[in-house]
Amino acid sequence: RQLLSIPDPQGSTCLHSPLSSGRLPMTRTHNLLVLTVATKESEGFRRFKRSAQFFNYKIQALGLGEDWDGDKETSAGGGLKVRLLKKALEKHADKENLVILFTDRWVPGGFLGGALSGKIEEYSRMRPSQDIRDKGLATLAVMEPCPCCSLSPSFLQERINITLDHRCRIFQNLVGALDEVVLKFEMGHVRARNLAYDTLPVLIHGNGPTKLQLNYLGNYIPRFWTFETGCTVCDEGLRSLKGIGDEALPVVLVSVFIEQPTPFLSLFFQRLLRLHYPRKQLRLFIHNHVSGRHLLGLLCEHGGEYKSVKLVGPEVRVANADARNMGADLCRQDRGCTYYFSVDADVALTEPKTLRLLIEQNKNVIAPLMTRHGRLWSNFWGAMSADGYYARSEDYVDIVQRRRVGVWNVPYISNIYLIKGSALRAELQQTDLFHHSKLDADMAFCANIRQQDVFMFLTNRHTFGHLLSLDSYQTTHLHNDLWEVFSNPEDWKEKYIHENYTRALAGKLVEMVRPCPDVYWFPIFTETACDELVEEMEHYGQWSLGDNKDNRIQGGYENVPTIDIHMNQISFEREWHKFLVEYIAPMTEKLYPGYYTRAQFDLAFVVRYKPDEQPSLMPHHDASTFTVNIALNRVGVDYEGGGCRFLRYNCSIRAPRKGWTLMHPGRLTHYHEGLPTTKGTRYIAVSFVDP
Length: 691
Description:
The chain is an alpha+beta fold. A hairpin with a 2-residue loop joins strand 10 (181-186) and strand 11 (189-194).
């Protein structure tokens, strides 16, 4: 119905031109006129025209802009559809050998479909008011018998052979045949193949519940995407933003939704600020259903940089769907709002050009691909089950893993998407987009969009970012993100691992402490990691007394006691071990060639030094193969004095940099002491690795 696909009939002698991908049997392009009935220039109609124009077929749409509601004599669309066809046929009655292909289009509220093909002189012998009825158009092919099509007449009506194309040689109706129609890729071509009859239909007709399958086929046919060419239409109709000054760029309403406790909110807002788009062209709407701690700093520091800011906090108690309706309506009511950009807080938007890239695709509704780290979970569905829930399409995994790259028509998107303001004021003008039956807000949104015959697109042409995992997010700590190293490792790394760690791993920022042999230091933690770990320990507050009796360790006796808190006291030992494995072990293997660590530890703890509490530490060996000692605050700012002295080599580190780790052998050779802290408070994180 919505897609004209003309596959190659595999070397048939009836082909008009070997350069085309196929023609109707016995038809030359200039002898074919495609007639269709349509009520409006929908996205489906434009796709229909584009697929026909791909083969240079002439299209004539009947009924565009006409009132269909007032003419319902017999069936959907009443007799108007038939009269439109009859009137069009009369105009062409004198054109000898003209072949008419008639395919139905969308009609409000009833039967969808129909396709007829035949010579104009045969059409003219028919009495449309009696012989052509809306409900009978779906599967009839009217044409003279020909050896190419091998269609036998099933009955004779006024000396015209009316033949049912039951083998789908020309017309493929998807209703009742979803399992029989597949894509056939071959040598840079893609076709729809009927498995039941092993035929390659010319016109694909999808109505009712089969529209979604038609949309899926339309991502590929005719030659819109193949393995050899990739996407051939992704650059069509783009809206270029190059050379446009900041003040002339479209105004975008950015809606942020924080609907549940979400990790890395501070990173989320940092990424939002990094968008390559002038903030004076952005309006900001935030619905925050949880704590507003991260928002206060953002709004105080950057709120004035935006065109406008509206915050709806948890005290207002607006439900999720209602908040989303509120955001969409803000853009709908503002004629100056060109785009509506909805972003959930569990989106990690790592590509700063995302907003520009989406605008340039020039779609009514489009979402960037987002997936969860190491999983096939994403923000779109490639197909839907009969009851309206998730089903996996044949191409889902390839799209998620970017083995197929393009712009895809899909039935469901969530988490992040861009909508044209003009669409919100026209096709999507209903003010309740996010309620539909008993569906959740995202499913309701997509159901309402599909109901309005608006296409939803997903682009995976770039790596835009990823989705956070919220499944095991703990909210019982002061800084809950510290515990996310397993669930959200990429975000954990961005927030807590020093930006120069990768350079250090490549050997560019590792410094040997001379003249101390086998003593190195290198960047490992961000300032945020240092601050949050210290604050977490002080929040816990149960520091040891610094004496030899210590029930936390095996045997209950500590030879060289410190005032400290162990990682297992705050239930952080699993996460700390993961940190050692991922970030310390690779450095160890580079700095000490031939040694391979399992990063096992008996003791990992944060030590606190104060002049009036415990200023220093007596000379000792560590119970480890090697020791990691991370400076958690800054000398000269937070404290004075401190450092580490290796007695055997008479060398000291007196100004350890915040976030840098000192790594040295623990036993036998590296006898060392902690130098006195003379002012303030010094914090270090220590691990005795491979005891």
